[in-house]
Design a protein that fits this description.
The N and C termini lie far apart (120 Å). By secondary structure, the protein is of the alpha+beta class. Helix 2 crosses helix 3. The protein contains three helices and five strands, in the order ααβββββα. The radius of gyration is 39 Å and the shape is globular. The protein has a five-stranded antiparallel β-sheet, with helices on one face.
Length: 183
């Protein structure tokens, strides 16, 4: 019995060896065919890509938001003209409006300010703690050529600061003082 088992073992090893050699012999031509197919497929794929399907339209490039412009440019070219026009549309004369970097009245500390002088000796300062429109802001109000008597935080709960929001909230605050139009 032992001889039969021994013979079986030898036969099975011969079969493995034979099958391994058969697969090696078969794989060589198959790999050559694959190489040829790959070479032939490449031009077909590229020709299909170029002529078969229309190119996807590129998304139009959005112009940068006004609020993404540099601070001085945004304030000087957009906020100040927009604020001046909005105040004058309400019937109040703007004597002077400008961007300055100076010491904040009453509170102190250097900051950027939109200084505005209105008719009837009324003034306000919209102060930015640093040169970004999203920085902490305060508004100061003064009447009759005096020092500012009102100092308030400005737009403290807003997550996004935009040009229309800044203008509307300044107008809202000035209207609260009864400074706009005939009150």
């Amino acid at each position: 019995m032992e001889n039969q088992n021994h013979t079986n073992k030898i036969d099975s090893s011969k079969q493995v060896t034979k099958s391994q050699s058969d697969s090696l012999d078969k794989s060589e031509p198959a790999s050559e065919v694959k190489k040829d197919l790959n070479t032939l497929d490449k031009p077909e794929k590229s020709s299909l890509l170029n002529s078969g399907s229309p190119a996807l339209p590129k998304k139009p490039v959005k112009p940068p938001k006004l609020e993404d412009k540099p601070f001085k440019e945004f304030i000087s070219n957009f906020l100040i003209p927009g604020l001046k026009a909005s105040i004058e549309d309400k019937g109040t004369v703007v004597c002077e409006i400008k961007l300055i970097e100076d010491k904040r009245p009453v509170v102190g500390g250097n900051c950027w300010m939109v200084y505005c002088e209105l008719s009837d000796q009324r003034k306000f300062w919209l102060c930015f703690n640093n040169d970004t429109i999203t920085s902490d802001k305060t508004i100061l109000l003064a009447e009759s050529n005096s020092d500012p008597s009102i100092v308030e935080s400005f737009l403290i709960d807003e997550k996004k600061t935009t040009l229309p929001l800044l203008i509307s909230r300044v107008l809202q605050r000035l209207n609260g003082q009864k400074w706009l139009g005939v009150n």
